[in-house]
Structures are given as structure tokens and as C-alpha cells.
Amino acid sequence: MRALPRRRTAAALTGAALAALAVAGPVGTAAADEDPLPPGLDTTDCPTLPAGADPAFWQCTAAVISGGRLTLGKIDQVLDQPIKLTYANGFDPVTGIEGVTGGTLRSAPLRVPGGVLGIPGTDFIPLLQISAQPELTAPVELAPYPERGSLVLRMRIKVINPLLGDKCYIGSKDDPITLRLGISATNPPPPNTPIEGEAPEMVSFDPPVLKATMVDNEFAVPKSNGCGPFGLLNPIADFRAGLPSAAGHNTAIFTQYALVKTYTDIQQTSAKYRLQAKSTATKTAKAKAKTWLATHGPWAVKR
What InterPro entries does its record include (predicted)? Predict the structure, then answer.
């Protein structure tokens, strides 16, 4: 298939079922009905659109990461609790300028196996327990086609332990952990080897929900900061986690579900958006918007 000559962006999960079906092929109704959906697939965190934005040309993505793993240095964390990511993307039909707005990441603390000592079974004492909680340090970015990582997340990980204080983090706003998530094969430095995600499949028609696995094992992880009084415990946190950890030693595998709705649809059911200006797009413009949204998800079809 021929790649579109225009610049294309990508989202956490695709914004159009038709685009996903074009990539993954037909999906049976039975398969869609049998896959249980995680909680949190709703539009409650959808951001308010920029001033003057036409809701017919914008979509909100609510993605719930329900499984997978995140390996940072010596920490190998199974994702056994849901992580919800919400943001919006769209474009101006007059100028053609594309944009992304918002970016909310919600996650409960994730218990780190082995605790402070890194030895399984030793973390039954509260002082030896460690939990990790991811936070965004910058708005979500959608990488231009044909970059491998379609969804760019800049993050820091809050390290929770009574001895480390309330400001202990791996990564920071100035030096974040940068994930470039996609479904195509990675190209990491050794010792990591290439891995691939899983293409989207439609697992629910009402509501319309897509499932996929997005991956990255090319990123580096910086040192910790703010651990203990005046950061005095940073070296201990770094030793436990094996930080800094160079590219080729870290992995992110996110199995996620996405509910994607246009803001026109959201307006019909949510009072939050009813006060926004009504769309003035003509039928032709709306058809153009539908086509654009169908090709500007994280797995936009290459033609």
C-alpha cells in the first residue's frame, strides 16, 4: 500500500474502527462480545477543546492500560492495575493544522515486588515496601508518520516509601522517561532485541472499543531525585533500581483498550460540552472530518 504523502499523527489507540478493521481484517461479533472490558472506558476526563475548535473535527481517546509490564533497570513491574490515559486530537479544516490537547494519566500506586531490598518475600513489613506511580510530565504527543513510535509519553515515576519522603521520583520534568509506543518492530541497542506489539482488534461494538498492545524497548531511564531529606537517599534508590539505566535495558509492553468518540458525539450525551459552539461544517466538511479521523489514529492505514 502507498503511504500518504501528508503528515499523519497517531494516538494512544486508534480513533476509528474502520481504520482498525482495514489493518486487522474483519472482526467477528462473537469475539467482540466475549472480551470483558476494563473499567474506566468513559469520556469523563476528555479535555475541553481549544477556543474555536470545531467538535466535528476532533476526537477524544480514553485508553485503559489493563496489562503488560514496565521494566526500568532492575525493576520489573507487572501492570496488574488499570492505568487510564485520556487526551484529544483533531485539526482545523481551514488551515489543515493538526493538534493535540490535554493529557490525563490516572493510576493507583503499583506495588513493586521485592520492596526496598529487592528480595521476594521481604516486603511484608511496611517500611520495606515500595510502590510506583506513573505521572505525565508533559502533554501527550502524536509522532508524525512514518516514525515507529506513534504515541509519545514523557513521564516520571513517583517512588512511594515512608523513608523516601513524598518527593522521590525516577525521572523529572527536565529529564523524563520518554516512551515512544507503537505496534511495529522496535530497533533497540543490545542487549534488548526487537519486539512488536499487536495490531488493533475491535472487541466491542457498543460501545465501540479497540484492543491492542503497544511497545517500546529503546528508551533510557534517568537517575532518581528528591529521595529522602535533601536527596540524600538518591544513591540508595538508584542502587536498588539499577539507575541510570541506558537504552537497551528497559522495556514497556502495554496491553490497552480504547474508547474513541468525536466531540460531536460527546456533546449529545454530556452537559460538559453542550455550551461549546455548534458545528457549522457542511455535509461535505463532515465527510472530510470522518475520513481524517479514520486515518489519524495510532495505526493510521498506510495507503
Answer: TAT_signal
HEC readout, 12-48: CCCCCHHHHHHHHCCCCHHHHHHCCCCCCCCCCCCCC
Return the number of other C-beta atoms located less than 10 Å from residue 76's C-beta.
Answer: 13
Residue with the larger pLDDT of the pair 266 and 277: 266
Give domain status of residue 11, yes or no: no
In a domain, 210, yes or no: yes
Query: For residue 290, which phi and psi values (nearest 5 degrees)?
Result: -60, -40
The grid coordinates listed for 42 are 468513559
Separation in Å, CA 137 to CA 9, 125, 248 = 20, 31, 23
The domain containing residue 271 runs over which residues? 19-294
Residue 130 lies in a domain: yes
| pLDDT at site 8 | 37
- Residues 6+ away with beta carbon under 8 Å from 290: none
Contacts of 65 (CB under 8 A, 6+ apart): 79, 82, 83, 84, 85, 254, 255, 256
Cell reading at 108: 493507583
106 half-sphere exposure, CB direction, 13 A CA radius: 15
Output the CA–CA distances (angstroms, integers) from residue 79 to 128, 157, 178, 270, in the order listed: 20, 14, 18, 31
Distance separating alpha carbons of residues 249 and 71, to the nearest angstrom: 8
Outline where DSSP puts E strands in 32-118.
58-72, 75-78, 83-91, 98-107, 110-111
Convert the pLDDT of each residue in 197-239 to its tens digit.
Answer: 999 999 998 888 999 999 999 999 999 999 999 999 999 999 9
Round the average pLDDT of the chain to a whole number and report it.
82
φ, ψ of residue 231 in degrees (nearest 5): 75, 20
